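User: Hi! I'm working on a homework problem where we have to compare a predicted structure to a textbook description. Could you give me the structure for the chain below?
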Amino acid sequence: MFLAKSHIRAIVGAIVLANSTPTLAQGEDKLFRKCFNSAIPDQVVESCTAIIKRATTEQEDLAAALKERGVAYDDLGQYGLAMLDFDRAIAINPRDWDAYNSRGTTRTALKLYALAVEDFSRALALNPLAHVVYGNRCFAKALLGEHAAALSDCDKGLRLRASDPGLLASRGFVKLLLKQYDPAIADYDAALKLRPDDPYSLFGRGAAKLRKGHLKGADADIVHSQGLRPDIADYMAGIGIHLGAP
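Assistant: Happy to help. Predicted structure tokens:
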């Protein structure tokens, strides 16, 4: 939903390529670029798998490729495979805060919220300035019913990056759960200015407007969100936002 993952893919790819031998074959160079820079999950899985299977792949590159393949598996909804890759990546490089963050997003998708919070906390211990992780932990804590702690995390993240749409959307979600409809709408408004076609923020804002009796605005937001993600109502119901509920 509002979780941030693989946000440093291009940076990692650039580092891996920079550390590669100058005589790197063109085909191998292309393989690394597809693994670390592609936005197509199937392509990432194929390319990263080739790197992972190579006997000559160094441990640092192996951990990075496992993490990227895990992110791609998560994008494809293959959460079990994603978890296996994240576990392997962390075993090789336990100092990679982004690997913990990525595993936390998959655990959130699996509704393992307490374990997700543990991963996000490990990530923040390694990188206290990772604003996206505060947003991810905020969301997971909200799903555990720890609303005050969730808001604290979102606020910390927004102090680091005030214009992050994921953090704004996560805080809006917590406020919606707390029935603070005007503040929720304000956060969703800010998030949608930055990311206008986010179905989760649109639906959340629509739900908040509906609670306030703003039926026309609510209908417009909800219909827009359903056009972007047809199953959005079912998804939101699964995390506690029901259109028919008071």
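For your comparison, note the following. The chain has two domains: 1-109, 128-246. The chain is about 75% helix and 0% strand. Good luck with the assignment!
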